[in-house]
Amino acid sequence: MADAVTDCYQIQGIATVAATAAGALAGMRSMADAVRDPFPRSFWWFFAAGAVSWLGDGVIVVGFPLLAASLTGSPLGIASVVVTQRLAPMLLALPLGALADRWNARRTAVAANLAQALLFGVAATLVAGRHLGLAGLIAVAFAADALGTLFTCTTGALVADIVEPRHFGRANTWLRATNALIAFVIGPGVGGLLFATGRQLPLIVDACSFVAAAGVLAMLRTPDQRARPARADRHFLTEVKDGVRISFQAGPMRLMAAVLGTMTLAQAGSVAAIVVLGTQTVGLGETGFGWALAAGNVAAVGALLSIGRITKLRTSSAVLVSLVLGAAGELLLGTAHSGPQISVGLALDGGATLIIGVALTTARMRLVPRELLGRMTGGYQSVMFAAGTVGTIIGGALANVGGRLPYLACAGVYAVVLAVSVRRIRGLDDVPAPAERAGRAGPAAAGPAASPAAAVPAQATQSPDEAAASRAAEAAD
User: Fold this and answer.
1) Where would you find the membrane-spanning parts of this chain (predicted)?
2) How many CB atoms lie within 10 A of CB 221?
3) Rounded to an integer, what distance in angstroms lies between the CA atom of residue 208 and that of residue 194?
4) Is the pTM of this model over 0.70?
């Protein structure tokens, strides 16, 4: 079983090398915006650190399953490693988000990377000596993704220290698109090739990537914009609950959580059965499926990077575009009879995911004050990983009934979300524009007694009708 899985990732890795060039060339079009309104130099240092770290993440995406396959022939054993990776962020994102808001963002990101490097270095040594069993691999996978979740919550807030609010949309586009390209296209391909050379190599490369990322972040200098209440006034459990309150309070925040969670659940169900669709239902075989998968993923990232204007759309328009593209992509996958059709379907669905991710992340960064961004990120991480886990289970069950059923069901879910929420989504346009945000520290400057709910702008808790009435009253004054 390990040889079969390795061959599949070797094929994907070879396809990735050829397809990545096309995505990189397409992405150059967005450079025009960078020339007109450039990012600060610190952003590119941050971007470089993220890229190196994401490569390690991508390598280990296949490294853990391949190691599990080499240790046990049981599909349940392999699945246990993958499930463990998802459990860590699902269970720990909220407390880790609270810690991210307490600690210095840059130092926390450096420490998380160094801890991951140490973890993977020890794991590589154990694998080389054949002392790491399945139980040990499960423990390493859980610890690695717990540290990765802390890094995500921290860097999600660190972006707000590095770039001005007017740059949030474009910065998120670069970060998300590059993350998807490196962590889910290039990294897995490289990981498959490395594993074929030596079982411990993916772990060694991962450890080196985290050391390099930590070194770059250590040189980064950013102002600390957070208000620092006295330690006696901070209660950790209360801060953990704040992550839930901030993420799910009435208004745009709850709507964004519902739309994103539903889309994540539906897409996870379709991704869970993509190998079955390509290799069995359509009959491409491992080689043809590897090319189709790589081409579709790279096309999705290249399209987003080449369409810089997507960040200038209203939030509601970006969400609606994502739902339409996602539904079309899933329909193509559900009716696919060839490799190119699978590639186009994957490109549309992947592009939809990236677009809505950029749009909603930017909207949340404009709504939530800097000192609460870690908790907010933790709340949404919990939603996405919980929805993804449930969706994977549902998708596997549907695939047992019919190989095309998960994709047709996903398209139906997208259509239902579009029909039900089309009017409510307009309320997302009430999110304050970057120029309207008075300082990065936000309302927390009022002191530690201010509650997180009060820190979020009042518009965030209003319905579209209430927001419109509020604007009309302000105009009358």
Assistant:
1) 12-31, 43-64, 76-98, 110-128, 134-162, 174-195, 201-220, 255-277, 289-307, 319-336, 342-361, 382-399, 405-422
2) 8
3) 14
4) yes
